[in-house]
Design the sequence.
């Protein structure tokens, strides 16, 4: 097959490309340029998609003896990921930009261009497994290495996309083996640190980054009963579950810490309350997709995962043509609208939805 290897400049994508070559595929490497701003060399493990990463990807491709190109997707990334991130925060939601990047860039724009150019599949260094389903069709499953499993952020993929996707690392037991393999292959990225944080906010200061783009506007911080307990300089700077940085002027009656329970962008209000009020008994969303064949029943049992590294929770899901509603067996902690809920059946990813609404397990006091 003609395979396009998406090479981020890290060890995982380099080894994935090498394995595709070993499998006898006609492999071409490509690095995605996602920003037109002049980059700087990265120190440590913050961010990704820098000039340093592009150079590392090229060196890896040279070592493997495969053609290498850089594709400019900066405009698509700006429109589909960065602007979406700003809009979601401005609307009081907490987005996951990695999910949007996988959905809109890596497995939509890149895959579409690859197919147009005659490639059969896109290969990446993600830790996940694509396999044939027992009843036909393709399925997305968790990786062998639970610590590195990335099936959550791949939950946005559809069966049509899975048909043209390769994850050569999915059945590798540990990341240490991947690094050892890279060392043995003479790849200079063998010991390169993993990237962390949001790639377009490499210093990790999300609040400051948003303030520069959205501006500041003084608003009220209120408790669940509506009493004003503090003020803020912009509701977009807060997210559900946040404790630090609230600067409340009125202490809680019980003296315990308070957490952000809700962000109301229309009134520029932040609602705070006790930790137990973060317990969520139900989540629902209208923007959903299925990673393979859709569930045959409108109501079914599953596991729900609400963060990339959260534990899956047993749940019951109800699906209509317009909405997915999930009731977990045990209350979820600190769920914010805008987060992604991924549904599993064992190791299999069933699908995902963006959380629009939540229902607290703790009633608002009268």
Sequence:
């Amino acid at each position: 097959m003609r395979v396009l290897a998406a090479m981020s400049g890290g060890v995982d994508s380099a080894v994935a490309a090498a394995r595709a070559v070993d499998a006898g595929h006609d492999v071409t490497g490509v690095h995605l340029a996602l920003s037109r701003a002049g980059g700087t060399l990265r120190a440590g493990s913050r961010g990704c998609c820098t000039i340093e990463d592009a150079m590392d990807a090229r060196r890896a491709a040279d070592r493997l003896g495969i053609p290498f190109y850089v594709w400019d997707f900066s405009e698509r990334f700006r429109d589909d990921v960065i602007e979406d991130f700003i809009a979601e925060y401005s609307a009081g939601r907490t987005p996951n930009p990695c999910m949007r990047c996988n959905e809109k860039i890596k497995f939509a724009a890149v895959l579409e261009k690859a197919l147009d150019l005659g490639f059969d599949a896109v290969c990446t260094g993600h830790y996940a497994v694509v396999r044939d389903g027992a009843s036909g069709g393709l399925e997305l499953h968790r990786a062998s290495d639970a610590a590195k499993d990335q099936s959550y952020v791949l939950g946005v993929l559809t069966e049509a996309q899975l048909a043209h996707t390769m994850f050569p690392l999915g059945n590798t037991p540990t990341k240490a083996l991947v690094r050892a393999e890279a060392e043995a292959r003479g790849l200079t990225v063998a010991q390169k640190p993993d990237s962390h944080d949001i790639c377009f906010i490499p210093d990790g200061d999300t609040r400051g980054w948003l303030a520069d783009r959205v501006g500041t506007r003084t608003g009220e911080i209120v408790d669940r009963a509506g009493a004003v307990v503090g003020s803020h300089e912009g509701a977009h700077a807060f997210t559900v579950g946040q404790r630090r940085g609230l600067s409340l002027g009125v202490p809680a009656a019980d003296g315990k810490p308070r957490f952000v329970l809700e962000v109301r962008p229309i009134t520029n209000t932040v609602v705070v309350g006790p930790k137990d009020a973060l317990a969520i008994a139900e989540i629902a969303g209208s923007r959903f997709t299925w990673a393979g064949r859709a569930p045959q029943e409108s109501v079914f049992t599953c596991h729900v995962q609400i963060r990339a590294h959260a534990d899956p929770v047993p749940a019951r899901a109800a699906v209509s043509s317009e909405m997915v509603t999930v009731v977990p067996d045990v209350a979820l902690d600190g769920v914010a609208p805008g987060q992604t809920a991924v549904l599993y059946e064992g190791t299999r990813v069933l699908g995902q939805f963006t959380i629009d609404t939540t229902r607290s397990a703790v009633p608002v006091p009268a």
User: Anything to note?
Assistant: Confidence is low (pLDDT under 50) at residues 38-47. Residues 216-269 form one domain. The CA atoms of residues 104 and 328 lie 29 Å apart. The chain is about 25% helix and 25% strand.
